[in-house]
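Dear Dr. K.,

Following up on our conversation at the group meeting, I've run the structure prediction for UBC core domain-containing protein from Adineta ricciae. I'm pasting the input sequence below exactly as I used it, so you can double-check it against your construct before we proceed with anything downstream. Let me know if the numbering doesn't match what you have in your notebook.
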Amino acid sequence: MYQRLTNEKSIFHLTKRLKIIADFIQLGDIEEINKQVQAVRELNLEYICSSIIEALEQAQYDHAVQQINVLLNRYSEVLMFIDPEIAALQLELKNLQERLSEIEQNKQNMYAIIRTYRIEKYKRLTPVESAIIIAKHKFYFQKMQHIQAKATTSGVDNTVELEQCQKLYEQVTYEFEQFEKRKKEDENYYNESRRTKGKSSSHLKTDTTMDETMSEMTKLYREAVFQCHPDRFSEDDQKQLAHNICTRLNNAYAQHDWDTVRLIHEQLKLGLLAVNVPVDNAKKLLRLERDALRQQFEMRAKRYKQIYSLNEQFLTIVPTQNHVTPYLERMEAQLHDELADWNRQIEEFNKKDLIVAVSNNFIDSQQCIKRDWEYLIKHPLENIMIDPINDDDLYHWQGIFIGPNDTSYKDGWFLVQIDFPHDFPKKKPMLKLTTKIDHPNVTTEGIMKLCNDQSWSSHDHLRSYLLRMYQIIFYPKVQSDHNSSQSMAIQQFRNDRTTLDETPKRWTDTYAVLYNTREKYIQKSD
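The predicted structure tokens came back this morning:
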């Protein structure tokens, strides 16, 4: 019995030496190979590995590696036969690793489908969806005007119908706001995907748990590094094994892979680097690794199930990436049909020309302005305060635009004036900024020329006009120079992004700070 145990330990050391020799063959380190061959001879097991030693001495390294693999496979089976529990643990570990690999592959495939869908959806469907929202918005606004005009001409009380239409209009307005948020998210995702194309998907969340705090993991990491540092060992094979473990530990710590850090720490405590590992400890090491893999598998399986359940309906229709394009083609065709239907309804209003006719014949410009004023009071706009200078004169308005917090115009109070033409709403109002502002589409006189001709129709109303002008002022689009007189400023905005941030902020602090502009506005209001 004693002789058998001695032989088993010798074979254990022999297999470790042969593994190290195979590694040094790959590195091409002849000197280390010769040292390890001498160490193998000292084990007095040449009757087992004589062909390997002979191949190494004759520099037949490929043949030696083949013989080493044969021997390792042979004695791996013997060890499994000697201790059935170790064999069972090793088999379970292999099974868990395969299941982990399978679920990870399934997860990556699912992410790939979702990623492809989101990117292609943004490119193909977003423009059509945007056009539909705009068409719906325009349709319900025209319908409200049509109902009001009909009530004026016929004298019929259609308050209920008008309120229903207003609710639909407000609902579409809310849909538009939500759509813009989703569009921004999809745009950011699309740009990030293009930026990381061909690289690892670092933007995807991993399944690494963060149950332990950083300080606790740092403590375990330092203890483990101390135990597996290569300088603590004298034998070359132990140094090499320690180096491999230390590298794995450092990588896990850098990637915040706390499960691996914890596992290596526990393995080191059980004698992973000991020269003679007791059988019981060897079993404990295998059980420890098995339990860690079980926990990891359960966690990833649960996470995969959660993600799949959230996208189950979509993934049932689009099970692979090859199904994405046909699915989007069907969706795109449906959206184009919907857009055509809305445009057809709008065209019917335009053909009848009821709104324009009623505006010309029955509702004078003052009534239109008053109607828009009342609607603006009921539905105020954020960061916009404006009303007539004199209640007896509805054609001249004054107010302020407050700069948004996410722009260089933050904290600025910008005085604005609006002059209405006497044939409003056939002709657009004119907006002018009386507070100096550094802007590519505002003249030095404060006149807005951007989109003044294209962005107004007799169907528009004051609230949408104010919102549109507010967006143009504080979120300038410098891709096209609508204002030729400001072409130099536009070119500067294009070429110098620093100017886009710094100069407007400096001008805002100088001319539109709260305590200056606010007092001027209050004085004029008084």
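Two things stood out to me. The beta strands are 384-390, 393-402, 413-419, 430-433. The mean pLDDT is 76.

Best regards,
J.T.
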